[in-house]
Every structure is written in structure tokens, then in C-alpha cells.
Amino acid sequence: MFIGHFGLGMAARRAAPRPSLGTLLLAAQFVDLLWPTMLLLGLEQVAIEPGATRMTPLHFVAYPYTHSLLAVVGWGFLFGAVYAWMRRDRRGAVVLGLLVVSHWVLDLLVHRPDLPLYPGGPRVGLGLWNLPAVALPLELLLYVAGVWLYVAATRARDRTGRWAFWGLVVLLLLVHLSNLAGPPPSDPVTLAWFAQLQWLFIPWAYWIDAHRDNRP
Q1: How confident is the model at residue 216 (pLDDT cuts 50, 70, 90)?
Q2: Taking a C-beta distance cutoff of 8 angstroms, is the pair 21, 206 a contact?
Q3: What is the pTM of this model?
């Protein structure tokens, strides 16, 4: 899942009006932002296997530090605690922590049984990536709903706030379509470096939010 995580991050603005969109998206995508660095360090492993599922050629061999349920809960607690310490916003901290954990929950829907409950523990996954007729509309629905809820919760202060936001919305959708229709990565290292580009969406989201206000 890709744009579904971003959609949930946008939707969370309704529940937590104080965190920036950048912080919300950082939380929602946090473990996937850590994952490519873990790959490059050799702490986690992925293999490129066309046909691994009908929607992705990635075989997630081992990712206990970013995608086990126990690790994700730990990351969520840490993320929320750091935000609470910095901003003194308990509500925002809880929402951000839950957003981090939501990543595992959404992945549970689409991954085949490769998500560990804890490092070295049993692996689970409902496998909707093998049912594109279900997975594709579900993820698109999450994304569209998130965009709508963010727009309903905020308003553009100027043209930057309007067009920078819609530019991000369109670009995320195009990246998602490219991931689905494009050729598989040549090797795990190339995949890891390409995945690092996700970090660019975070400062873009902070820039957007600096030009938008919460609706009363």
C-alpha cells in the first residue's frame, strides 16, 4: 500500500488540528521511510521476484525492525512521545502515534503473510495484493477520502496553499500508478535508493501547510 497511507495521514487532520500536514504524513509513512535505510545497512532484506503477488514483485524476506507489529508499536510510542515533548499537544501525540501503527494495519490488508508479529515471530497478511479488483479500489477510496477530509478541515491562505497541495495530490497518484504499471526494480539496492525519494514529500507537505489554515 502506498497512497492509502498518505490518505490516512491527510484524513487525520480532522482528529488532530495542530500537527502540520508534514508531521501527519511523516507519521503515516514513518516505517516505510525507515525501511530503505535498513535495506542499505543490510539490517533488513527484500528480493525482487516478479509474480510474488499480482500487484508487486517484492518479496519481503525480512523486515523485523520496521514492519513487525511490536516494532511498529514501539515506533508509534516513540514518535508520539517526542511530539508531545516538543509541542505539548497530547491529542496530537496520540493521533500521530496511532498513525504510525496504522501503517502496519493497512499493510496487513494487502501483504501476503510476511508481516511478523514480532522479530522472528509468526507472520501474517490477508494478501489483497493478489486480488487487484479489491485492493485497487480500496486504496483509491482511502486516498480520495483522505484528500477530501483534509480539504474539508483546512483552507488555502493563498495560491501556494491551493496549487502546491493539488500538485502533491496528483504527483502521489502518478507515483502510485507508476509503481503498478512500471517495470520491476533491477535490484534491491536500486529499489532502496529510489525509495529514499519518498522523503521529498515531507518538506513539500510542511510547505503546503504553512500556506493553509484550519477551518473554524
Answers
A1: confident
A2: yes
A3: 0.96
Say if residues 92 and 18 touch (Cβ distance below 8 Å). yes
What is the share, in percent, of the chain residues with pLDDT greater than 70?
Answer: 100
Round to whole Å and give the CA distance between 147 and 50.
Answer: 32
Closest listed residue to residue 6, CA positions, set 106, 129, 146? 146
What's the Cα-to-Cα distance from 64 to each of 20, 88, 136, 140, rounded to whole Å?
Answer: 29, 31, 26, 28
Cα angle: 50, vertex 36, 128; to 5 degrees: 45
DSSP H or E segment with residue 59: strand 58-62
N residues, the chain:
216
Contact 128, 51 (CB under 8 A): no
